[in-house]
Amino acid sequence: MLLNLTFKADLSRFTGIIVIICGFTGAAFSQQLFKGIIVEGDSTTAMPFVYVINKNTGNGTMSDNTGRFYLNVNANDTLLCTFVGFVKLKLPVNKFKNSSEKEVKIVMRKIAYNLPEVTVSTFKLKPYERDYMNRVIEGSKMRTINAIESPITALYNQFSKHGQEQRKLAKIFEEVFEEEQVQAKLSPEILRNLTGDDKIDYEKFRKFCFYLTNYYIINHEGYDLYYKVMECYYQWKEEKR
User: Fold this and answer.
1) How many CA atoms lie within 13 A of 230 on its CB side?
2) Which of 16, 40, 56, 122 is the most core-located residue (most Cβ within 10 A)?
3) Window from 49-53, 108-112, 136-140 with minimum mean pLDDT
4) How close are the terminal C-alpha atoms of the chain, in Å?
5) 118 in a domain, yes or no?
6) Which residue, among 104, 40, 101, 43, has the nearest Cα to 68 in the 3D structure?
7) What total of structural domains would you count in the chain?
8) Is residue 122 one of the residues assigned to a domain?
9) What pTM value is reported for the model?
10) What are the respective helix, strand and coil percentages of the chain, to the nearest 5?
11) Higher model confidence: residue 130 or residue 233?
């Protein structure tokens, strides 16, 4: 009799475990892959770097450089789409039928701001200035001395006051060229347009995003660069800079 009761208790626990497992399995199978593309108000211009958060689970992703994103959802979940300068969207998944089978277009609309006009000004080097700077940089570089050439000239260029001044000037010109490349990819104007934040302090932002070095900016393009910029910008906003 005792054996029979023990068997029934074990069977009851086992049945309970099966029910729990089936419940989790059912929840897992009820999920679907939501495929979306986010565009601006004209319905054609793709919007990269838009945050898409599943309000129910807290999971999220970001749209790629074509505006597309993919996120696992349940039928009763709600998606939040946010981007600085645009109206936040709340989208119930059950509003879209068969979303796992086709791509859903999501249209983001700008928030209307009354902002003063911004005068864009960037430094541009004139051809003769660029030529002169290149000559100074090239002239400051040490040339390899072979057995035929005299080392005296090389020693003079290395240790004389004139040679030292040339190298200092060359370093300044190299930094100017470097800054020119950086500004072409991430100037204050580009940063404001990208984030939609007209009041952002460019210098403070660059210091905050310490990994966005000149080297990183120069050697990365498009999505790879601006994804990092927007990632850092959202951290910046979370800390209420």
Assistant:
1) 24
2) 40
3) 136-140
4) 72
5) no
6) 104
7) 2
8) no
9) 0.45
10) 50, 15, 35
11) 233
